[in-house]
Specification:
Order of helices and strands: EHHEEEHEH
Structural class: alpha+beta
Shape: globular
CATH architecture: 3-Layer(aba) Sandwich
Pfam families: Acetyltransf_1
CATH class: Alpha Beta
GO molecular function, one term: acyltransferase activity, transferring groups other than amino-acyl groups
Largest sheet: 5 strands, mixed
Number of domains: 1
Strand order of the largest sheet: 1-2-3-4-5
Bound molecules: coenzyme A
Radius of gyration: 15 Å
Organism: Candidatus Roizmanbacteria bacterium CG22_combo_CG10-13_8_21_14_all_33_16
InterPro entries: Acyl_CoA_acyltransferase, GNAT_dom, N-term/lysine_N-AcTrnsfr
CATH topology: Aminopeptidase
Keywords: Acyltransferase, Transferase
CATH superfamily: Gcn5-related N-acetyltransferase (GNAT)
Helix content: 25-40%
Low-confidence stretches: none
Number of helices: 4
Distance between the termini: 49 Å
Number of strands: 5
Length: about 150
């Protein structure tokens, strides 16, 4: 059975571990990713800060005490837009546990929380080549709104 719960404030290393897997997974879409970041001091501080911020939603999916997935969502302040936006800043399910509905459970729970908090739109950014994630978000009702571009200087 999968249990979705709020991430515990004193278990920052769970989030660092799960985020580390996402970064390693996503390196095929972005060679610029710092593979040591999630477990670094910087990563630790980043996750401690978000765990202590009541405006941020941070959920963990667990089965038999094994942490198998997580989602983080934070307000996205865009003063020039009318709607209150929540951004999914981070999400991942361990490779072995994918395609079992865990990602859907996490996103549904997170968006339920966001709606209760008065958010009107949810936003997420994905690598263009991460078709698995894009398909997943589209299935959850998201549609394409923008494209990010970058260049080497
Ligand atoms: C994107 C991601 C979070 C999705 O998580 P997930 O747990 O695999 O998601 P789900 O299982 O809910 O849905 C995935 C697929 O499984 C299928 N599925 C859902 N419930 C299922 C079930 N009970 N049994 C079998 N298949 C199921 C869905 O139909 C879906 O298929 P589709 O995308 O081909 O339509 C996961 O692939 C991941 O962690 N990717 C790597 C990290 C990453 O890229 N994160 C996003 C950064 S933007």
């Amino acid at each position: 059975m999968i249990n979705i719960r709020k991430a515990k404030k004193d278990k920052v290393e769970d989030l660092q571990e799960l985020n580390n897997e996402v970064i390693i997974d996503n390196q095929k879409y972005d060679f610029d990713l710092d593979l040591g970041w999630a477990k670094s001091n910087q990563g630790n501080k980043y996750f401690i800060k978000l765990l202590n911020d009541p405006k941020i939603c941070c959920l963990i999916a667990e089965t038999n005490k094994i942490k198998v997935g997580y989602i983080v969502a934070a307000p996205k302040i865009l003063a020039y837009r009318k709607s209150r936006l929540i951004e999914i800043t981070n999400m991942g399910v361990r490779a072995k546990y994918r395609s079992m509905g865990i990602g859907t459970m996490l996103i549904n729970e997170c968006l339920k929380w966001a709606k209760l908090q008065g958010f009107q739109k949810a936003y997420v950014n994905s690598y263009l080549d991460n078709q698995m994630a894009i398909k997943f978000y589209k299935r959850s009702g998201f549609s394409e709104i923008d494209v990010s571009l970058e260049k080497n200087l």
